[in-house]
Design a protein that fits this description.
The chain is α+β, with helices and mostly antiparallel strands and about 900 residues long. The protein has 34 helices and 31 strands. The strands form 6 sheets. An 8-stranded mixed β-barrel has the order 23-24-26-27-28-29-30-31, surrounded by 4 helices. The protein has a 5-stranded antiparallel β-sheet with strand order 2-1-5-4-3. It has a 5-stranded antiparallel β-sheet with strand order 7-6-10-9-8. The longest helix has about 50 residues. The radius of gyration is 45 Å and the shape is flat.
Length: about 900
């Protein structure tokens, strides 16, 4: 612009000079004419001379005007050209992905692009004409985006590596400063946050792998196949050979070992390369550097191939087996060890001699059955130890096992000092070299408590833990049995779905503890009114009933009676509470051929009744299929919610079970999905999770929840655990193991901090496949927890088949603590069972200090519930995850 202005200024003197020249050309002639003609009046002038002067003046003026127009046009063309050049340069510089600042020789800023202003949160109005580089650094310092002095800034930015500036929001900016030959300068500012993050992750992964290999007790080394030079050796390798890793890396076997050992090593390497499976095992003798001793080594060599399936390097794993030569000492130690183990195993063990029935060996646990010290039982027979009746039965079973020459297992009661106990007895016959029975080994395991627990578990599988009513599974089973009994006859029966009105309000006003007591009282009134008919609790506030008789009259009459029975107030904990019911009803065989259809149609009728008015009764009508369409609309909204970012996560804290909340240290959080519908508002998880599971959206939703939870947990300053629920559908569709692995790598979350909660549905669908997937997940290093234990078909066989890290007791049992002795017994049994299987126990739904104290007293490992904290955005628990302290530190150092 300065150049253009200068050009405009230079053209004006030229025009002025032209005018002066023309005037001077006319003036002499005029003066000459005047000198020849003496002055006279204007009227005395020659008219022709006057016209010639006028015409000459017009010509001169026209010429001057043409010159002025030509100059103006040239100036406009020059200005437009300069503007285009300036706009092109400015656009190019402003669209760079890095900030650029240019200064002249006096350090005055002559250019600053938009990216620079965006990086540091400045605006164009913050800059002024004549601003210097020092001024803009001071401005950044005032805005909190620069923490170094001017001298340090220019010195480090001018270095080859540049200056890394850490911004308060966590971004890292690489600044490089260049001095131009004319005395000016150029500074570039590049956002390198992502590159630094990836570099840290790469370094962390490399360090992690090296740490793992360094802590492997076996010697591990790797070498290039082309030249046989070592590229890695772990600490065990260093300790064995007696030289450091730096001495090993980059050298081959001939540079490290004596010729004989080196030749043996090279021959073994060649054999591994020629092995058809790419693996080679062998044993060879080498001389160890540290003590010059010859030692025997067993090794395995594995050829590692690249993406093109070409051999890239050779992995060597070996161990020192020299000590195996002292087998006599080892065998003696083993014998003592086995005797010690047999003496201390928790199962009663007795070894009997077949030829005379005398006891040769009994461990300490057998003293309970023998009712005497084991030393006293050696050499005696069953007839010497037990009464005649028991001895006769024992001898008969022993003879049957000997005759079978195999294993016989049975359960039978045995009298002990603690009374009659149930024992699981296994008898196995040991044959001599001639194939004849020589010894009879008998083990006796006290399974009294286990069978009692299994009995309770069987009850739990088909009964609601809070009200002790049959649950949905038992209701469907009874419904199908009723259908089988009525098929082929004229019999009818009704299925009633009863929804308890006002439970949510009671929970919100008085708390879930009082709400649970209300549910128990409602269940009692329903049973009394049904007069022996089947009453079941189908879900949180929904009950189911089956009523026979002439329909729909019998069903409507019962529904009316149920409403009248629940109309009077409930007096609970000194409070008067009211509750009503809304009822939906379907009739067999008119409204469905099977239990599932009848229950679904009764539910549709209940949905219609709720739409009409609370407290009403509705019979199923075919047009109620509209409910299904409504669910489809909700399903479509849910699929869009995932894409539109309407889902969010709430986190509920989990703590160690202690006698008070203050003592219950927070050890982790459970991530729970929440849906904020743009029209409906907050949609309950109890409403959208079943739809997601039925439609298959749970797979996509579950992936989003897992990724968000891991990303959030990875950002916590404290390494707390995060628990995420996995649906059975995620195990049936897609590679759940690969998904978890990739998310862990993507988010950088340590596998040990992730806990995956599953229900028994994962194993019910496909036991073998589910078990294999769980084992692969556990191999990643994550923790596996069984969720809602006791609320469905949970079986001890699942706990026996897979070593879960944790068992989560369903909240229904916890909320009954203190008022239902059976619940306390069940919770106590589950805790004992889990600890017996070396699994930790966590109880959910803890809402009172009495429940917390009971769980702490019984040895429960962890607790979760409203007493510790509600599910909330993680920002509400910033202090618990250490985020507040991290922010304060950033402010102090920024």
């Amino acid at each position: 612009m300065a150049e253009k202005n200068w050009q405009e200024g230079s053209m004006l003197p030229i025009a002025v000079q032209a005018v002066v020249c023309l005037a001077s050309a006319v003036a002499p002639s005029r003066a000459y004419a005047d000198s020849l003609n003496p002055p006279s009046d204007l009227g005395n002038l020659d008219p022709n001379l006057i016209w010639e002067a006028l015409i000459g003046g017009v010509v001169v003026c026209a010429f001057l005007a043409a010159v002025a127009l030509w100059i103006h046009s040239a100036l406009r063309r020059s200005k437009r050209s300069q503007l285009r050049r300036n706009a092109f340069v400015s656009s190019a510089m402003n669209n760079l992905n890095q900030g650029v600042v240019m200064t002249d020789a006096q350090r005055r800023i002559i250019f600053c692009n938009d990216r620079y202003i965006e990086i540091y949160g400045l605006t164009r109005s913050d800059l002024w004409t004549g601003m210097t580089g020092y001024d803009i650094l001071e401005l950044r310092r005032q805005r909190g985006v620069l923490a170094v002095s001017d001298d340090d800034f220019y010195e480090k930015a001018a270095s080859s590596n540049g200056l890394i500036t850490e911004l308060p929001d966590g971004r890292a900016i690489l600044v490089k400063y260049f001095v131009l030959p004319n005395g000016g300068s150029v500074a570039t500012h590049l956002d390198v946050s992502e590159q630094r993050k990836l570099s840290r992750q790469l370094a962390s992964t490399k360090q992690f792998l090296e740490t793992v290999l360094d802590n492997v007790p076996a010697c591990v080394a790797a070498k290039n196949i082309e030249d046989g030079r070592y590229i890695f050796a772990n600490r065990a390798y260093e300790r064995f050979w007696g030289f450091s890793r730096d001495q090993v890396v980059g050298k081959n076997a001939r540079e490290l070992f004596d010729p004989k050992s080196a030749a043996s090593i090279e021959a073994t390497d060649r054999a591994a390369l020629l092995a058809p499976e790419g693996q080679y095992r062998n044993e060879f003798e080498v001389e160890v550097q540290r003590d010059q001793a010859r030692r025997m080594v067993a090794s395995i060599r594995i050829v590692v191939r690249n993406e093109s399936n070409k051999p890239e390097f050779l992995l060597v794993v070996f161990e020192d087996i020299t000590d195996r030569q002292s087998l006599s000492v080892e065998l003696e130690n083993t014998k003592k060890f086995l005797e010690l183990v047999v003496d201390n195993i928790p199962v009663a063990l007795i070894v009997e001699q077949v030829k005379d029935g005398r006891y040769l060996l009994a461990n300490r646990s057998a003293e309970t059955i023998l009712n005497r010290r084991r030393e006293e039982a050696t050499g005696l027979t069953a007839s010497d130890i037990f009464n005649a009746k028991e001895a006769k039965l024992i001898i008969a079973r022993d003879e049957a096992a000997i005759k079978k020459r195999g294993m016989i297992t049975e359960e039978h009661p045995i009298s002990t000092k603690d009374g009659l106990r149930l024992f699981l007895t296994r008898r196995a016959t040991v044959l001599n070299d001639a194939g004849e029975p020589q010894y009879l080994i008998k083990t006796h395991e006290d399974v009294t408590n286990r069978r009692q627990t299994e009995s309770r578990m069987a009850h739990m599988a088909y009964h609601d833990g809070l009200t002790d009513l049959p649950n949905r599974a038992a209701f469907l089973q009874a419904l199908n049995q009723m259908i089988e009994a009525c098929e082929g006859t004229d019999e009818e029966f009704a299925v009633l779905c009863v929804d308890l009105d006002g439970l949510k309000e009671v929970n919100d006003v008085f708390g879930h503890a009082l709400g649970d007591k209300l549910l128990i009282e409602v269940a009692l009134r329903l049973q009394d009114t049904a007069r022996g008919g089947l009453v079941a609790r189908l879900s949180g506030d929904e009950f189911g009933l089956i009523i026979d008789g002439k329909q729909p009259d019998a069903g409507l009459a019962l529904a009316q009676q149920l409403g009248e029975a629940l109309a009077p107030e409930f007096h609970i904990d000194g409070r008067a509470v009211r509750a009503g019911i809304t009822t939906g009803m379907s009739i067999f065989p008119h409204n469905g051929p099977d239990g599932a259809s009848l229950l679904a149609n009764a539910g549709a009728a209940l949905f219609r009744a709720k739409q009409k008015s609370r407290g009403t009764i509705s019979l199923y009508q075919p047009e109620m299929d509209q409910q299904i369409r409504d669910r489809r609309v909700l399903h479509q909204d849910l699929s869009m919610a995932i894409k539109n970012g309407e889902l969010s996560l709430a986190f509920q804290p989990q703590g160690i079970a202690r006698n008070s909340v203050a003592e219950s240290e927070i050890i982790g959080f459970e991530a729970l999905a929440r849906w904020a519908h743009p029209v409906r508002g907050q949609v309950s998880p109890a409403e959208f999770i079943p739809i997601a599971e039925e439609s298959g959206l749970i797979v996509e939703m579950g992936e989003w929840i897992l990724r968000q939870a891991c990303r959030e947990a990875a950002s916590w300053p404290k390494p707390l655990q995060v628990a995420v629920n996995l649906s059975p559908a995620q195990f049936m569709h897609g590679d759940v193991v690969g998904l978890v692995h990739s998310i862990l790598i993507e988010t950088g979350l340590a596998p040990g901090r992730l806990e995956l909660e599953i229900t028994e549905g994962v194993l019910i669908e496909d036991f073998d496949r589910g078990l294999a997937l769980l084992r692969r997940l556990k191999a990643l290093g994550v923790r596996i927890s069984m969720d809602d234990f006791g609320s469905g078909y949970s079986s001890l066989s699942y706990l026996q088949a897979f070593p879960f890290d944790k068992i989560k007791i369903d909240r229904a049992f916890i909320m009954n603590l203190g008022r239902n002795p059976q619940s306390a017994a069940i919770v106590r049994a589950v805790i004992d069972l889990g600890h017996g299987l070396e699994m930790s126990i966590i109880a959910e739904g803890v809402e009172t200090i009495e429940q917390l104290a009971f769980l702490a007293r019984e040895g429960c490992d962890g607790v979760q519930g409203y007493l510790l904290g509600k599910p909330l955005p993680i920002g509400k628990y910033a202090g618990l995850v250490g985020r507040v302290e991290a922010m304060e530190l950033a402010l102090k150092t920024g």
